[in-house]
From TrEMBL:
GO terms for molecular function: oxidoreductase activity. Keywords: Oxidoreductase. The keyword Aminoacyl-tRNA synthetase does not apply. The keyword Translocase does not apply. InterPro entries: NAD(P)-bd_dom_sf, Sc_DH/Rdtase_CS, SDR_fam. Belongs to the short-chain dehydrogenases/reductases (SDR) family. This is Oxidoreductase. It comes from marine gamma proteobacterium HTCC2143.
């Protein structure tokens, strides 16, 4: 039997590398998926590529009304919500804290923390009424260690681990499980941006240096991360909540 048979999932950041890979894995395993992002063109293309069990909703995860919109759209389209993959995130800039732009800091915090909080806030009652569910939050290796020049991103990824731990305890009596997945660098648009910020004009050099720091000697692929997300979304992880799951090629060993 498919591991997510008859399950309904919302994936924010659904048109990005990890979100798209997770959606593909979830659908193969029997789920119906609502993709959420701010880029309608990318969302539409992704949904069409994934087929009839994927739908999409354009939304800004930092806005309450947008969050209610994608939650209600999912219920109308698929009849419920069993899985919430809080995956939307932005990297901000690469700069020392003395030079970091305050507006960019605020934007990173809004997307990476408030966006997760809002989604959980409005999906939680639905999962309570449905007898439970699984919430998976995309954090990062920077959520468990310090990152130079990415103060907003590092702050946000630490914060969602704290959020997860508190909500895991709140949700346990209602069989709502909450965990984070913490990737190291993954071959996505975000890392191209960060590499360019780390080493302007020599992003390949930055890529090579980062790769050398990973014990498995490669970046993760979106599918590597999606496989862990699938496990945490499925009933195979029915006794797992409040956990931090590293997907980092040994980077934090």
């Amino acid at each position: 039997m498919a591991r997510l048979n008859n399950k309904v999932a919302i994936i924010t950041g659904g048109s990005g590398g990890i979100g798209k890979a997770a959606a593909a894995r979830f659908i193969v395993e029997g789920a119906k998926v609502m993709l959420v992002d701010i880029d309608e063109h990318a969302l539409k293309n992704t949904a069409e590529e994934l087929g009839e069990n994927a739908a999409y909703c354009v939304a800004d995860v930092t806005k309450k009304m947008d969050t209610l919109h994608f939650v209600n759209a999912t219920i109308e389209q698929f009849g419920g919500i069993d899985i919430f993959l809080a995956n939307a995130g932005i990297e901000g800039q690469v700069a020392p804290i003395t030079e970091y732009d305050e507006d960019i800091f605020d934007q990173v915090i809004a997307v990476n923390i408030k966006g997760v909080w809002l989604g959980i806030k409005h999906i939680f009652p639905i999962m309570q009424n449905n007898g439970g569910g699984s919430i998976v939050i995309t954090s990062s290796t920077e959520g468990v260690r310090g990152g130079i020049g990415i103060s907003a991103y590092t702050t946000s990824k630490h914060a969602v681990i704290g959020l997860m731990r508190g909500i895991a305890k709140e949700g346990a009596p209602d069989n709502i499980r909450v965990n984070t997945v913490n990737p190291c660098p993954v071959e996505t648009r975000m890392m191209r941006s960060l590499e360019n910020g780390i080493s302007p004009g020599d992003s390949q050099g930055a890529h090579d240096r980062i790769t050398e720091s990973i014990p498995l000697q490669r970046y993760g692929q979106p599918e590597d991360i999606a496989n862990i997300m699938l496990f945490l979304a499925s009933d195979e992880s029915a006794f797992i909540t409040g956990g931090v799951y590293m997907a980092d090629g040994g980077s934090t060993a």
